[in-house]
Structure formats: C-alpha cells, structure tokens
C-alpha cells in the first residue's frame, strides 16, 4: 500500500510536470527547457554568494574610489574565468564630494549638528572613516545660507498646499523635511520652486528608527545619528552624467558647462539623523503641524517659521571621475545579434551589502551557473550580456552613459533588459514591461520559496490576498493562475533602457521580511546583512534562479514570449484611470468652488489659527478621448489575433529572425520623438517616473500629469500622441502576425 501511494505521488508529480507549458516554446522545447533549468539550479551555491559578499563589502567602494576600480576589475576577472568575454568599460563623469559640511542653529539657542555616524564594535566595517564618504547628498548645490527654519512634513507639493492654508510661506527660509512620502530629490526640488534657500532632510524614527523596532546594533533599524546619503540629481528630468546629455561620457565627449545642466538642484541640501534633527524641531514655533505631517519624537511638531534660525554651509569638489562598468558577453550560437542583457550595479555609498551587493553577487552566481551549463555542451541560442554598473547611486550614471553611448546598436539588437538591485528575505516583487508579465508568472510558478516550500508565485499571491480587505479581491488573487507586475518608474538601472531607448525591461528582487534602517549608511554592512537580511543567503540563490530562468527562457525561446493581450488589458486600465481622473477632478472642483463661494473653508477652520481661504479654480473642461479609445480597441483585436496564431503554431516554419525582431522592437513604437513635456530625455508614452514622485511611476505620464496640472491644451495633445503611438504599436503586432501566416 505504501509503495502504491509513493508511485501515485510520482505519477501526479510527473503529470503536473508534463502539463506545464512555457510561452514561446513547443511542448518538447518546454521539456528540454525544464531539464536545463533543473541542471542550472544544481550549480547554484549559497557559499559563493556569502563569500563574494564578504569580499565586495570589505571596503567602501563609491563611484570614483580606488576600491570601486579594484572591485570592478576583480569581477571582470571572475567572468573571464567562467568563459565570458569580459571588459571594464570606463566613462568620465561628474561626481561632487563634500569639502565643507556645517549645520548649526544660531538662535534662539545654539546647537551644532554632529553629522557623523559613529563606528560600532558589533560592525566590523563601520570604522573605516578615512575611506567612507561622509553623510551628504550627491549633487547638492554649494551654499552658505542662514535663515529661519520651516518644517514642511515630507516636503511634497501637497504639504506646501497645507502650509499655504496656514499662511506659511517658505520664501527666503531653510526647510526641514522628513524622509519618506516621495524620493528624496523631490524635496529640494519643490523647496527651491517655492523660494526656499536651503533644505535639510532627516529620518524620523516613526518611519526609520526606534518607532519601527530596536535600532542597530540591537535590532536592524536606523540609530539616532544614522543618516541616509543619496543623490538629489533631478532624476525625473534626466539621469546620468549632467555634463553629457544624450551622449556617452567618453574621454573625448563634448561637455556642457555645469550651469547649463538641466538636472542639477540650485540650493544646498543635507541629510541628518533624528538625533541631530530633534533640537532643531524643538526650537520651532508657529502653528502645530497637521497630524499627518508629524513624526514620533518626544516633541510637539510645530511648522515655524522660526524662531529657530539655522546656518547651513556646504561646499563640494566638482570633479570628473572614472566610472567603471563591467560588461561580460557570452555569444549566442544561432542568433548572436539578438541580446538578452542582465544587470545590477556594484557601486555603493559606503560598503553596500544590501544595496547593491546582495543583488550583484546573485547575478554573479547566476552567470557562473550558466557557464557550468556551457561546459555540459549546451550553448545559448541568443547572446547573453551580464553587466555590473558603476555610478548607479549618484544618478544611474554608468548604465545611462553605456546606453546612450551604444543606443543605436542596443535598439537594433536587445531583446530585453533584466535588472536587479538590492535583495533580501521574503516575497517576489517584479516590475516591468507588461508584455513580459506572463513570462514572469511562468517563472514564478516554477521557482520554490525556501522558507515555505511552495512556489514564489503562490507565496506572493498569499501575501497579496492576506493584505486585501475585499473577499472578492482575495478570491480573485488566489484563483488567478498568474501574477500582475507593477509598472516601471525610475530608481535603478532599467531606466535608460525602457524610458529612453524603448527596450522591454524587468526589475526583479525579493523583500518584505528584511526590514531595517541601514539604507545608504555605514551600517549597510556584511554584519548587518548576515544578521537581519538573508542570514543563510537562500534568497540570493532564489534571485539567481528567478532572474536566471527569465534570462534563459528569453535566450532559448523559439518565438519570443511577448504577451500583447496582457499589455492591452493593462493599457486599457490606464486609459480608464485617466478618464476617471478627469471626471473626479471635475466633480471635486465644482464642490470646492461651491465651498469657496459659500465661505465654508473659513467656517471649517480653527478660529484660533491663521487660515488663508483658497481661491476658486477654473472649471474642468471635457477632453476628447475617442482616438485613444479607438486605438485601444484596435490593439485588443490585433493582440488576440496574434495570440491565437502563436497558440496554433508555437514553432512556425517561417522567418523567425524577422518575427522576433518585430516582437522585441514593438516597444520602440511607444516612444515619443520629442520626449515628454519639460523632460525630453524621457520618451516612453506609457511609463515614466512622475515629475513630482521621482522613483514612483506615472502611467500614461503625458496625459496624467497634464490633467493633474490642469493644463488642458497639453492634455489633449498628449492624448493624441499616445493614440498615435498605440496605433503604430498595433501595426507592429499585425506585422508579426503577418509573418506567422507565411508558409
């Protein structure tokens, strides 16, 4: 009976295995691919990931540092030892480092900020002071300013709207903002637009400190003097080297003057920890901050201005440094001019165990396992390129310069770009081009989570369902055979590929059970990671399995696994969102204007506080979405036709080179020739980082942001641009279908 039960279980397992399919493969091809991936898994070792992380986090290795170069050359040599054609490709880029950092309160009492993260005996690399970059913001402006202080909450536009209602003006003032609520570079950007002359950004313990849990070294969270370094380059305008827009920053590249750069902040800005922030906030008077703006320190959060007066003095060495990208190629045996690119950055603000080395060592182990497959006689059909980017932290510099330098060739040859960054214990997250959503779902179905023993797809679905309040939504999530991936904004090295060149892209990693406050501090170390992030390095292997399968399936597929039906469903949802946004704005404007007319804002305000009555707004007009809606309908029909053809003939006897090139270049038809308004570097009409969100994505960005900014003429223009692009995209799908019909 026992033997019969075992046999039955084996038969069920084999039946499940045989029934699984992979988009882009025949049934026989899928069986061969599963066998290849099983062998690939067998080569992956946590010990390598552990050993390499310890090595690559041994010393600080920021952009332009001696160790950055040394580590890049070491990684190049590792790739070469595994059989890759590997080089270090170097660019000359602008990277300012601090010469002067002073923050002091000069009235009504005196206080001087320490601006130093103390070394800890429990952290073996935290005392490397001579090599560490101090706490500062990359690409802050030089400045020596003294002014009254104003607390602006998270420092996003809506916070200034609230301050305006309280009669608070920041013109000529220095603002202090909490980390969170948006990407850090948005805070000085909005502050300077509002007339502030300086900006301080601190980590409030409510978001990043003792309110969350025990602080380091007892627990993983940020200690009182821990400060978050980071770039304040205006990334929503343009990433990369500020002096070489749209071209690679080679030695001989023509550079503009710094004053001409369109992505530099014009006021000084500095990060501090909550211990340095507390005396400043305690000294503020004025109205009490709205509840949502407050933090968790033992003080009453006033907004000012004053009576606290602050002196901020920052000066930088604006120098050109070397930016070292590691590029490792394994040439395809059948389609060498079709490239699958896999990347992660290697530079860090200090030692960078979590960000980025946890992702970089997973990529390296993935690449090593691929090389072991080659030793067995397997050869990749398409070319694989593994990249270790430098200069990501100051502004996606290495990847952007490489993409701009090789733009034409990349657009001709790149099938897809697969990115990772930091990694930790927990749940799969995935963002990217929605034509690749089914590919990601299939991969997630086939990778096992090491903690639970179920697939990473099922674990992710369970987490989503558990955090959803609607019973109907829970059932839909659990019963769905696939997963939904998020759209890409910015914040990592996929940006130049998808946003500037129109190359399909993915961003993959794990997290959710790796909380901590080490981000961009000296405490992002091997010791911290080993204790709190992924102690057994199991999720480094899981990332290698997930990204490795994604890479291998794109490399080996007969017909590239692009799902246009899923893309249509997503874009149709975005169109419904922007039409709904317009209707909601119209209704809310009518209500607000009625309240202004009846003086109801005045009646609702606290009579003991200063309050400024809002002004009436212009009415919201009706926009014509018909061309866009027609384009989406045509996309739906063509996507279905193509999907039916591929399903009927997964291994067509036709011009596969032409078919696959038509598929992977379809994304380029979604690019806007002139770029998005006020930021032409960003050219994708479906996805972009928000102008005031930084990393956060805005879908249908030209339309959505024009509506939000009440620029109706621009909104109608952008509607027509997206309609035209979707029409061209549909023609590309039709062209692919036509190739499939050939015999």
Would you spell out the secondary-structure blueprint of this structure?
Blueprint: H1 2-19, H2 27-42, H3 46-56, H4 66-81, E1 85-107, E2 111-112, E3 137-138, E4 143-151, H5 157-165, E5 174-178, H6 186-193, E6 198-202, H7 205-208, E7 230-231, E8 269-272, H8 274-282, E9 309-330, E10 335-345, H9 353-375, E11 382-389, H10 392-395, H11 397-405, H12 407-413, E12 414-419, E13 426-432, H13 437-445, H14 456-466, H15 471-479, H16 495-500, E14 505-512, H17 526-532, H18 538-556, H19 564-597, H20 600-604, H21 626-648, H22 656-664, E15 687-689, E16 697-699, H23 701-708, H24 712-741
Helix pairs in contact: 2-9, 2-18, 3-9, 9-18, 13-18, 14-15, 19-21, 19-23, 21-24, 22-24, 23-24
Written account of the structure:
- By secondary structure, this protein is α/β, with parallel strands linked by helices.
- Among the domains are: 94-320, Glucose Oxidase, domain 1; 564-741, Transferrin receptor-like, dimerisation domain (Transcription Elongation Factor S-II, Chain A), CATH 1.20.930.40.
- It is 41% helix and 16% strand.
- The protein is built from 24 helices and 16 strands.
- The strands form three sheets. Strands 1, 2, 4, 5, 6, 8, 9, 10, 11, 12, 13 and 14 form a twelve-stranded mixed β-sheet that branches.
- The N and C termini lie far apart (54 Å).
CATH class of the domain at 94-320: Alpha Beta
Tally the helices: what do you get? Answer: 24
Q: What name is given to the CATH topology of the domain at 94-320?
A: Glucose Oxidase, domain 1
Strand-residue fraction?
A: 15-25%
Radius of gyration: 27 Å
Percent of residues in helical segments?
A: 40-55%
Task: List segments where confidence is low: pLDDT < 50 over at least 5 consecutive residues.
Answer: 1-18
Care to count the β-strands?
16
Report on the biggest sheet.
12 strands, mixed
